[in-house]
Design a protein that fits this description.
The protein is of the alpha+beta class and 109 residues long. The chain is built from 2 helices and 7 strands. The chain has helices at 3-11, 65-77; strands at 17-19, 30-38, 41-43, 46-49, 51-60, 82-90, 95-105. The longest helix is centred in the middle third of the chain and has 13 residues, at 65-77.
C-alpha cells in the first residue's frame, strides 16, 4: 500500500491521521503514520522485493482497549500482518502510545 492508501485506511477509525506529524496536535485519540525504512529481499545482486517498514502510533489519554480494537480491526480487514512493538505512557506529552509495526510490499499489497 502507498502512504496515501494507508492514511485513508486509518481514517476509517474515525480518528485524526497524519504522516509524520500534525500541523497542530489534535485532540486524543489520534494516529501518526511513520516509515522506518526498508527491509528489502535480495536475489542475484538485485532487490527482489521492496518491503517498506511502517509504524502506526495510536495516541490516547490512557490505555484504551476500544481504540486499540478499532485500529487493529482496520489493519486486519486490509490483510496487514501487524505486531505491537511497544506501548507506554509519555508523561511529558500527557498521552499513552501503542506502536504498531508492519511491512508492506512497495507497489503492491
Amino acid at each position: 500500500m502507498r502512504q496515501d492508501e494507508l492514511v485513508a485506511m486509518y481514517r476509517q477509525t474515525g480518528y485524526p491521521v497524519a504522516f509524520r506529524k500534525f500541523k497542530r496536535r489534535p485532540a486524543l485519540p489520534y494516529i501518526l503514520l511513520l516509515t522506518l525504512g526498508t527491509r528489502n529481499h535480495f536475489a542475484g545482486n538485485h532487490v527482489h522485493a521492496k518491503l517498506r517498514h511502517w509504524r502506526a502510533m495510536l495516541a490516547t489519554e490512557e490505555k484504551d482497549p476500544a481504540a486499540e480494537a478499532k485500529i487493529e480491526a482496520v489493519m486486519d480487514k486490509a490483510g496487514i500482518c501487524w505486531e505491537i512493538e511497544d506501548e507506554d505512557e509519555i508523561e511529558d506529552e500527557a498521552l499513552y502510545q501503542v506502536l504498531y509495526d508492519f511491512e508492506q510490499l512497495e507497489g503492491g499489497r
